[in-house]
Amino acid sequence: MKALLIPVDGPARVASLPSGGGTRFMSSVRALIGTDCAERIRVTTRWEAWLDENGASAGRQVNQAATRLAQSFGWQFSLAGPVVIVGLDQNTDPAALSPDQIDAILQKISTSSALQPPCRRLRRTTGCLPPKTVARLRK
Hints:
Layout: E1 2-6, E2 13-16, H1 23-33, E3 38-42, E4 47-52, H2 64-71, E5 83-88, E6 94-95, H3 99-110, H4 123-126, H5 131-138
Antiparallel strand pairs: 1-2, 1-5, 3-4, 4-5, 5-6
Helix pairs in contact: 2-3
């Protein structure tokens, strides 16, 4: 399935991941972002971001492009390290990004003038935020 890898430095690129969201999918996501423990953040109802669960506390650099992308959808914190974006199916399971979704995401991360600068890194002081905390922060 098609996904989008947004590295900390360098251009985003399309990546292929195994379908289904199982063990092979998770192994591939962890390998792409270089971590043993990945977490997901549902950025929109149609796609989500996967990143290193301990990225900020481990000192990973803020991913400017991924942070701006998430902030353009209302998120108020920074994403650290490489980020993998995948689509979501009707059951909110990982799914391939459509060509239109890939184009829209690439457009958003390449249009820096329309995006806000990243906010301060909340994770630096809080460590890894649990999903319920992330949901509260998003409100």
